[in-house]
Amino acid sequence: MAPRLDFSDWWGKDRKKGTPVVVKMENPNYSVVEINGPDSAFRPVEKSRGKNAKQVTWVLLLKAHRAVGCVAWLATVFWALLGTIKKRLIFRQGVAVATEKLGKGKLVLKIIRVFLVTSLAILAFEVLAYSKGWRYFESANLHIPSTLDLQGLLHMVYVAWLTFRADYIAPVIQVLSQFCVVLFLIQSVDRLVLCLGCFWIKYKKIKPRIDGDPFKSDDVEAPGYEYPMVLVQIPMCNEREVYEQSISAVCQMDWPKDRILIQVLDDSNDESIQWLIKAEVTKWNQKGVNIIYRHRLIRTGYKAGNLKSAMSCDYVKDYEFVAIFDADFQPNPDFLKLTVPHFKNNPELGLVQARWAFVNKDENLLTRLQNINLCFHFEVEQQVNGAFLNFFGFNGTAGVWRIKALEESGGWLERTTVEDMDIAVRAHLNGWKFIFLNDVKVLCEVPESYEAYRKQQHRWHSGPMQLFRLCLPAIITSKVPLIPFVLPVI
């Protein structure tokens, strides 16, 4: 039964008092309604009218919380950046530098800190000036107020800062911007030329070819097949996860066993890993594979020092070519038969480089992006430079060198962290030519985590500038044209 409401009594009693009345409905379909005054029953209810102030307060608090979180995140990023810079200045490839270098590193770190703190202070000053209404950049030209327009000491400091920026900082920034634009245009032209060269290679189907049977003997009196002596080197250091598959792939290459020697160059400092690698080498040696295990007690020079030590063995003089594979590379059984024949009847050829293929390219977004970047590097950059210039940077692995070319170029040097690029430049300065085989692929992996990717990129990019400084005098005085050096470096 619906409640009985006497509206006349209710209107007469509560008209003057204006006290709220709660009307309870027995029907559960109705809500509880609160009437705040005598006129409230006849005007529409304004939703959330009394909550506006509270909502604004909560919104402001939320924005303030986000702003504080953003500032804290920026501070964390800055301190992490400073810590990384400090570590890179103090440590070079995990080894502490000398005391003199430590002093220089601390000085550079202090300069970077001062620069960051100064930048933050200037940014805060600009925000303060903007909040006070000192906006002199709204017009096309900078408007500097006169002395009579100054509103105080802070305003005077801000005007002095604007004058200093306009007179001293702006010209320098403008010159740097123009320089960056020129570099961008040069790199754009370089990329355009490389893409056109790649298109021409595809259109004309240009690629290195092997004429006839490369292993057939030229001796009429003793016909048969002759295979050159090949040395295969696998440098590694603490490669617990990949050593087995790498050694297994190299040991299964299709090449006469008496014409090949495999060197496992282990620089591991973990004895358990050393024993595992020794056991793997012993297993394949018992199967008839000509393989040996080498471990250096004094591990200097990193990979370059490891390769240099291996090339100093007396038996190396019996071999004509050397193939190099990093610990995570798995060549196909026909790798040597696809690369070594290019050296025949080509005495000026010093290097045959194969392409990389990635087994984990679809693992995540990082691996897919790396695959795109490296595919452009191989498909466009190295293939075009190899086809038209006979020169490109050695990739450090999946390549076959003529040992004579290495020896005449000075061998492996420990002066930089990019020993592969170093030996490639010196070999080309000595007149040796390179060939890139885009059809020959060697399986490997790309880093799946950002930390591993960061370390890899640091190794790849920390040495080129140092190498450029060391090789520039030799490049200038060399009779070899500069174009083969300029284009690959760009």
3D architecture notes:
- With 490 residues, the protein is α/β, with parallel strands linked by helices.
- Among the domains are: 7-42, no CATH class; 230-489, Spore Coat Polysaccharide Biosynthesis Protein SpsA, Chain A, CATH 3.90.550.
- It is 50% helix and 12% strand.
- It has helices spanning 7-14, 52-90, 99-131, 153-204, 243-251, 271-286, 302-311, 335-339, 365-388, 403-408, 419-429, 450-461, 464-477, 483-489, and strands at residues 21-23, 33-35, 91-92, 95-96, 230-236, 260-266, 291-295, 321-324, 349-358, 399-402, 433-444.
- It has a 7-stranded mixed β-sheet with strand order 7-6-5-8-10-9-11, with helices on both faces. A two-stranded antiparallel ribbon has the order 1-2.
- Helix 5 links the parallel strand 5 and strand 6 (260-266).
- The chain is elongated and about 100 Å long.
- The protein starts with 6 loop residues before the first helix and ends with a helix.
